[in-house]
Amino acid sequence: MYYITTDVRAVVRLTKFVMRITKTKLCCRLQFWSNIVLSMQQILCSVKLSNIAYLDYAATTPCDPVVFEAMSPYFCGVFGNPNSMHHFGMVALDAVDAARIKVRTLINADFEEVVFTSGATEANKIATIRTMKSLNKTAGKRHFVTLATEHKSILDCTDYLKREGFDVTLLEVGSDGLLNLDHLTSVINDTTGLLSFCFVNSETGVMQDVKRIVATCHERGILVHADATQAFGKIPLDVKELDLDFLSASGHKVYGPKGIGVLYCKSVHARLVRTPGANRDVEFGIRSGTVPVPLCVGMGEAAKIAFSELSTNLTRIAALRERLIAGITGQLDEIYINGSSVHNYPGIVNISFRGCEGEAIMMEAKHIAVSSGSACTSNKLTISHVLEAMKIPVDIAQSSIRISIGKLTTEAEIDLAIEELVTATKKLRAISPVWDIIRSGSSVDDVFKRQGFR
Ligand SMILES: Cc1ncc(COP(=O)(O)O)c(C=O)c1O
Q: What's the gap in Å between 230 CA and the centre of ligand 1?
């Protein structure tokens, strides 16, 4: 019901595709029928989910059918290895180059500054671990700085660097999730090599002041890496204007395929992140192995579409965010929007329904797909490390869910989310002991502390 527009679009695309393919007779029969089957599967899948509104676009996005169509010839028909010197290899290499140009256009990078990776996790790893190892070797810089609110993929690198004997600082953030530049200045020193920070936080949508962070670091000769996984293709991003040294992005967050990402590496820093023994012809010596041509093509197409739709999507998504927040706060009290109300990407809304547990809300609101930062495991309640670093009171943090809005989200889906969340909250609050404590005016934090939750 809620995916009706998507379904209709898929049917129209399928019809056009069939007409084109029949007219031109370009594909062999086998490919023709496999495409039909795949398209039908896509439609059936969306029909099956038709009464659930997907509001988890920060977790992943569906691959745009246009992206899928652009990729499909590169699995069977155009199958060459881009490293091969013959015709088949050249055709594949041309496709990878064209994809690289599309990505480069979106972020205003130079051609050789765009490196295809397996995803943002790998890009983060290359940018942080390899840079720190090189800087340590060549300049004795062994201090790495990042934020306590980073994505797990960066925190894993942080743990690794610690184990390898590097000095690591995890910066605190304010209750709005923003980095305090004075705090940054107070921790950096002559041995600091790199700062890595999340451009748009995946749980709260908080958007850091990139220009000021970069200026503060560059003044002291410190390089900067931005994990832009949740920003790439969603907000305007110009690596030259922002003067970033490294940036990571992922295909599956921007309606591209899973298993592909991008590392932007300023050309002067390429030597820092080269992998030993790699063929220089493959991703400029930064990555080894055969390039996954269809995935690169998909990443390029997704970047191209994102570039053309960026401002329209951003405006629509901002309006849907307002509708969602107004709809919920208009009907319920003790609702908290976690993170900066000014510096954010509107597509990610972290919202607390005080008195209820995040996971319980998710289970109750069955017709929406959202995610929760808290988890209840063996009688112990863990809260999101992001909200914890923002020092959000435990009872507010544990009642949070993340709603992420995408380009396919409709007003009807937002209205459904409002209805489901308001009903779920009222029902849960009616039986919630925490809600009773709040109502009685006692400090829930004190009660939680006594029970060992923080
Ligand atoms: C901020 C951030 N960084 C990194 C990643 C990892 O991305 P990928 O799945 O491409 O490895 C994610 C995915 O959720 C993310 O949100």
A: 8
